Amino acid sequence: QAQLVESGGGLVQAGGSLTLSCRAPRMITSTFNPKTLGWYRQFPGKQREFVATITGRFETNYADFVKGRFTISRDNSRKMVYLSMNNLKSDDTGVYYCNADGNTGYWGQGTQVTVSS
After folding, report:
1. Tens-of-pLDDT digits for all 117 residues of the chain?
2. Residue 20 and residue 37 in contact, taking contact as beta carbons nearer than 8 Å
3. Is 81 exposed, middle or buried (0-12, 13-18, 19+ CB in 10 A)?
4. Distance of alpha carbon 26 from alpha carbon 29, whole angstroms
5. For residues 82 and 73, what is the distance between their CA atoms, to the nearest angstrom?
């Protein structure tokens, strides 16, 4: 099964911003038409948690802890999804995963986001 490809992770100071990108592997771009795209994150020893989703109609949903700070968006022509993160906190540190169409869909390998205090 093909995996999504995340990028944009890295080290950022608390209060800073970072934008994550996610795309489908080129091998499946011709058939990749997800209804819902999303971002999830995982901390060491913890289960993966919901961050944000966006539907094909650009309807968004956010976890409470990121509302007002994170913005999810998608570009259907480029078949990409983004997560713009603002006012990052040290608690945001973790591995961020891109998802297409839920648990039975596609996942990426994750990109590390590290926020220094």
Report:
1. 789 999 999 999 999 999 999 999 888 888 999 999 999 999 989 999 999 999 999 999 999 999 999 999 999 999 999 999 999 999 999 999 999 999 899 999 999 999 998
2. no
3. buried
4. 5
5. 5
